[in-house]
């Protein structure tokens, strides 16, 4: 793959007899936002920790910007940025000190502008334990990107953040992406993964059960598409009206709601029916199954197995 | 160098900013010194002769044994070392910089004690200042190394307290701070020689305060220095970045090797 930033091939990670990650492979292109999804214990953290050089893999090959995270740990440090789930800073450090301290080890100039951007301008001299959870996470993110890494690993980046900060963080992720930074996003927040990720991989019990763009993943499921229609004369509510591929039908607040397994024929038939009855369409909405629906479908089917 | 300086500055400030460290570095040693000076010197006038070395030794024991290990364990348990590793901060800096900054705080405390004790308590000053300073650094080095090692091998804060007290309490009782080494029974005397405090008090007596040493004072300085070197070496060797990643290069019991210089000293009759 051209411009591959992260390469994972036949990767395994075992802790004694317990196999946390079982022979997974994927690649992430430069400038891509790649979502890593899965319930607790799925193997996300083990995968991230091995890519970050915190643990050694039990088998397979890992490369980040062409660097082996275990053999070339020193080289890796200036290539990656990591925002850990726990902030990982001493209680008494101030944002100013942390910025100088971490940037000095990366041999990069301190980025105080990032502290201002993350809304920490007034807290630059406050000790870490005096910051709110949201401020602590924003500081961790500012430190993770301060040395302009090529690849950024974000572990639950928006957990505990308010809406405004979350939007700011998403804007920042998009800016980093447009500057060519590759982002690995591990999250439980399906809406965030769907909105932000170019591609996602769903991990279950150490294996990748689905990988692709959010649209591709949602399209492969058995989930039904919801079609809500409202017309002037309510001709759809007449008895005996049926459309192709519709599995369920309900009426709510003057809307006829159809759950279709194949939206093309269903929508065409609905419009043809409205025209043939000289009715007028007021509103028509199509809602595809979300990534969350697909995720739940996958996890439930695995649990059933 | 720039990174080292930023790290050093932050750690030094932490020694004052953090309430627990402020207590162990300054308030506890200086408070205890004043109490002992005003109370003990009245009860036992002979204590005046030992007040400077004894209280300097006490300050070193408190700041190192009670101040250094716990922050190391907490940092490891809270994922701070993981964050340091990701950002390329070397383990040697994590282990050595807090020890150096603690020694720097101890220099300040020792200065306060040596300057004020003659004025407040009519305490005799050292006859040989150079040896006094040398012994001070030898003990501070040995105790800082020992404390870092305790922080490295302790699996939890509770165990840290246990290990630290296992050395701190006997040092107070048998180390020659409260009563002279010569008054100890033979067996207790041999056990006391395993403690850095005993070695330091012996060296202070023989080399700096113009008193008689119970055993070779230069042997004590050598034992303290070797023990410190061993402790830092073992700390680097046994260091683990992460409590979740339990793989270590050696068994924590290897830490007992730091007793080797003292044991050899006992066998050689030094």
List the helices and strands and how they pair.
The complex is a heterodimer of chains A (305) and B (270).
Chain A lengths: L3 E12 L2 E12 L3 E5 L6 H8 L7 E6 L8 H5 L2 E4 L11 H11 L6 H6 L15 H13 L5 E5 L7 H16 L3 E5 L3 H7 L2 E6 L2 E6 L1 H6 L5 E7 L14 E7 L2 E6 L2 H14 L4 E7 L3 H14 L1
Parallel strand pairs in A: 3-7, 3-8, 5-6, 6-7
Antiparallel strand pairs in A: 1-2, 1-4, 8-9, 10-12, 10-13, 11-12
Chain B lengths: L1 H16 L1 H25 L3 H19 L3 H9 L2 H7 L4 H31 L7 H25 L3 H18 L11 H7 L3 H13 L8 H22 L21 H8 L3
Low-confidence stretches of chain B: none
Distance between the termini of chain B: 41 Å
Give me the Rg of chain B, rounded.
18 Å
Question: SSE order of chain A, as H and E?
Answer: EEEHEHEHHHEHEHEEHEEEHEH
Ends apart, CA distance between termini of chain A: 34 Å
What oligomeric state do these chains adopt?
Answer: heterodimer
Largest interface, by Cβ-Cβ below 8 angstroms: which chains and how many residues each? A-B, 28 and 27 residues
The major pleated sheet of chain B works out as: none
User: Outline of chain A, from the CA principal axes?
Assistant: elongated
Spell out the helices and strands of chain B N to C: HHHHHHHHHHHH
Number of helices of chain B: 12
Q: Which regions of chain A contain 5 or more consecutive residues with pLDDT less than 50?
A: none
Average pLDDT, all residues of chain A: 88
Find the CATH superfamily of the largest domain in chain A.
P-loop containing nucleotide triphosphate hydrolases
The whole-angstrom Rg of chain A is 24 Å
What is the global morphology of chain B? Answer: globular
